[in-house]
Amino acid sequence: MKDLKTKSVAILSEPSGLCKKIFVCTHVSEEEYKKLFNEMRIADEKEKIEKQLLLDEINLAKKDVKTIVLPEEEDIRILQATEEILKLHFSNIILLGNASEINKNAEKNNINIEGVTIINPSESDKLEEYSQKLYELRKVKGMEPEEARKILSENTRYFATMMVKMDDADGLVSGACNPTSDTLRPVLQIIKRSRSEERRVGKECR
């Protein structure tokens, strides 16, 4: 048993630096250990490739920095992502919501979002302009000006979509804490599809 344990550790710990942990078990064969080590090596190589691809994408984004609006500030992952993006400087981020509440939530979770732009839709100087545009787009469906204003002041996904429509943002990221249907609805109503598009693709991440 003692010899097997020593050999097992040696197998799992080489080549040097590849494995972060050493697992010791005397209930599996040397062949099974080799298989486990090979799986760990493959996983390590895959992680390296993924990190390099991400780095390439970030460097590409830095060459043409875009403004991205994030309408789901209530999700802690959005604030964490904002912090990372601010550190790497590859995109201008706009968060939608109450600035005081957003900053309080970030501070509570030890997240640094200093320097990010925060817009409260209900207090935005663009609200009237956006409301008029939404009304024009949806009046054939029976929407009234008051309804358009209410939607944009209360629903951050609609406001974010209108920012893209009006060229005040280059894009938006949504769907972290809302169903895909709720994310796509304002896009289809405001930006819509071009005639050349044959299908829509949505990916739900959790």
Description:
It is a single chain. By secondary structure, the chain is α/β, with parallel strands linked by helices. It contains 8 helices and 4 strands; from the N terminus they run H-H-E-H-E-H-E-H-H-H-E-H. The chain has helices at residues 2-12, 30-62, 76-88, 99-108, 127-138, 145-154, 156-165, 180-190, and strands at residues 66-70, 91-96, 117-119, 171-172. A 4-stranded parallel β-sheet has the order 3-2-1-4, sandwiched between helices. Strand 2 (91-96), helix 4 and strand 3 (117-119) form a beta-alpha-beta unit. The model is unreliable at 1-24 and 194-206 (pLDDT under 50).
Features:
206 residues; alpha/beta; 4-stranded parallel sheet; 8% strand; disordered N terminus; disordered C terminus
Mean pLDDT across residues: 81
Shape from CA axes? elongated
Q: Assign the structural class, choosing from mainly alpha, mainly beta, alpha/beta, alpha+beta, or little secondary structure.
A: alpha/beta
Order of helices and strands: HHEHEHEHHHEH
Q: What topology, given as strand order, has the largest sheet? A: 3-2-1-4
Q: Determine the number of helices (DSSP H or I, runs of at least 4 residues).
A: 8
Q: How many strands in all?
A: 4
> How many strands, which pairing sense, and closed or not: the largest β-sheet?
4 strands, parallel
Hey, roughly how much beta strand do the residues contain? 5-15%
Terminal residue distance: 44 Å
